[in-house]
């Protein structure tokens, strides 16, 4: 009984909307007119090409914006696990990029990358390097949003990796040392296998979050230049609230949902395997 | 004894080599310099920021960007909306979530695993997928562009988080306490309010603050479901600055700093809960 409010609330605000978008996707429905007409799978045919193109962009963004924070976060965790002065202070300060709201992160990097007045070009000019136009061209814009997202999410991975490093089997490492294992051997055969599982889990989770990312891209590039950074989330938003095509946007959402189900099962499988260990 | 532990500690936690130190410095600079630039720009004069010989630190610091924020009625309204909606989200998520967590933790019933599974999956659903249906639902319920509608919508992504966080904490309570309460003749509801909740007050506060932070940071729902009058800071700032074309960067950085401040304060208060909360994988902003 006491669980009822949560279940009801969650069914109504999360599960029902997912199911009901299947319904909406079968209608020609717009925010501009009250009535809607049944069109069957027509919306799906209309958005298919757009969907395929957006999946490509989304995959590029999500993959890059996962690999970089993972590499950065794990490296920092290993370095911060060493005995250095001011370790706790540094660790706390490095949480800041994660604390800032996504919108603030995006404003900040858009400002850093600003063509005319941005600090990046200012610094490049100072050391005699040519200026770069990050947000003005497709490759630069993709790099820019990946950098911003990397900066935003590495602290989370760093904290998880640090927590895992706290649980390293100290006796095993000592024993290996006594048996003459070198530092890199100990890392390769004891530490690394120990952290791979949990890090893989957060990596998949990070990938799933990045796949649905909206803030970073919408604020920094608005999906441009052209449609070079238009991911599924941005595209769906533009279709629904820019062109008011609710039916087509819902069709796009349903296709996305199918894809998400496949990716999520990878996460759930990994989660289950790690829990068994 | 302690000497032995020191040696063990030295092996597991070696000193950093020179290349290690250099790498750490470079990575730390990547992490921290942007934060410096955010803060520095917020205190710079507009003419300095757009000058040819731009300084890299506020040579002639000014508060005009900060005071500008507090003199802008639109941004003040956004700030007020953010406080109301995020607080509401935190309260709703904790009340509903703690009941759910208590039930999942201390009772065995049919459908318990599917419910847990549902909340686990719930964490993975991107907001954009719910957007259109939420919009239509709120619209037909007359809740579009209202605080209530926003709070209910924000609870989609805060509820799974609160449930798992609190379940972890309630799992740690010994069953003896609950059995003693049962022997004393307390009803389930009374046990919950009189025994369980007082014991997990720190956990309830932590969960509330995590929910607050996520509500505070949301852009997508605020942009579409809030309307101009109930818009929270992230959406308000996006429309006020970015969409006008030419951005007043120092003012935007000042506004960003003000938007981030509550989260920094919460982080300082909650620091010791962060690692366990984050590491459990249940928490992500």
From TrEMBL, chain B:
CDD domains: TM_PBP2 (cd06261). SUPFAM superfamilies: MetI-like. Coiled coil: none annotated. InterPro entries: BP-dep_ABC_trans_perm (IPR050901), MetI-like (IPR000515), MetI-like_sf (IPR035906). The keyword Ligase does not apply. Pfam families: BPD_transp_1 (PF00528). It is found in: Cell membrane. PROSITE patterns: ABC_TM1. Its main location: membrane. Belongs to the binding-protein-dependent transport system permease family. This is Multiple sugar transport system permease protein.
């Amino acid at each position: 009984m006491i669980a009822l409010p949560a279940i009801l609330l969650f069914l109504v605000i999360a599960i029902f909307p997912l199911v009901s978008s299947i319904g909406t996707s079968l209608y020609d429905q717009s925010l501009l007119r009250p009535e809607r007409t049944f069109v069957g799978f027509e919306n799906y045919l209309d958005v298919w090409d757009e969907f395929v193109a957006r999946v490509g962009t989304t995959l590029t963004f999500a993959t890059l914006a996962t690999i970089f924070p993972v590499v950065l976060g794990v490296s920092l965790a290993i370095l911060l696990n060493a005995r250095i002065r001011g370790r706790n202070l540094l660790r706390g300060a490095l949480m800041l990029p994660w604390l800032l709201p996504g919108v603030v992160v995006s404003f900040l990097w858009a400002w850093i990358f600003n063509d005319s007045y941005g600090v990046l070009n200012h610094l490049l000019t100072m050391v005699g390097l040519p200026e770069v136009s990050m947000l003005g061209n497709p490759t630069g814009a993709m790099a820019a949003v990946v950098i911003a997202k990397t900066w935003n999410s590495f602290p989370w991975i760093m904290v998880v990796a640090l927590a895992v490093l706290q649980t390293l089997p100290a006796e095993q490492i000592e024993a290996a040392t006594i048996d003459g294992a070198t530092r890199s051997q100990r890392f390769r055969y004891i530490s690394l296998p120990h952290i791979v599982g949990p890090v893989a889990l957060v990596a998949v989770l990070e990938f799933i979050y990045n796949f649905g990312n909206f803030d970073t891209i919408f604020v920094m590039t608005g999906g441009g230049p052209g449609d070079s950074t238009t991911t599924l989330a941005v595209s769906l938003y533009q279709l629904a609230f820019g062109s008011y095509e609710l039916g087509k946007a819902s069709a796009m959402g349903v296709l996305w949902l199918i894809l998400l189900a496949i990716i999520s099962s990878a996460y759930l499988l990994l989660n289950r395997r790690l829990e068994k260990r | 004894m302690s000497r032995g532990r020191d040696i063990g500690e030295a092996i597991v936690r070696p000193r950093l080599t020179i290349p290690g130190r250099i790498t750490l410095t470079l990575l730390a600079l990547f992490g921290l310099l942007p934060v410096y630039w955010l803060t520095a720009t917020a205190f710079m004069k507009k003419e300095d920021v757009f000058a040819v010989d731009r300084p890299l630190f506020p040579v002639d610091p000014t508060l005009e960007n900060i005071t500008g924020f507090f003199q802008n009625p639109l941004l003040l309204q956004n700030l007020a909306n953010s406080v109301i909606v995020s607080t509401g989200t935190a309260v709703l998520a904790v009340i509903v979530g703690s009941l759910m967590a208590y039930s999942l933790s201390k009772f065995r019933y049919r459908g318990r695993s599917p419910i847990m599974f549902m909340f686990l999956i719930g964490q993975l659903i991107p907001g954009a997928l719910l957007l259109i249906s939420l919009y239509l639902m709120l619209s037909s319920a007359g809740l579009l562009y209202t605080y209530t509608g926003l709070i209910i919508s924000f609870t989609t992504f805060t509820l799974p988080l609160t449930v798992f966080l609190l379940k972890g904490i309630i799992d740690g309570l010994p069953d003896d306490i609950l059995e003693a309460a049962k022997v004393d003749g307390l009803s389930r509801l009374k046990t919950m309010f009189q025994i369980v909740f007082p014991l997990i007050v720190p956990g309830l506060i932590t969960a509330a603050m995590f929910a607050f932070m996520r509500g505070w940071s949301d852009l997508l729902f605020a942009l579409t479901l809030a309307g101009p009058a109930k818009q929270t800071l992230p959406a308000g700032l996006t429309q006020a600055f970015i969409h006008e074309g030419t951005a007043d960067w120092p003012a935007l950085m000042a506004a960003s700093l003000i938007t981030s401040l509550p989260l920094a304060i919460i982080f300082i208060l909650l620091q010791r809960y962060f690692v366990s909360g984050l590491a459990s994988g249940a928490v992500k902003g």
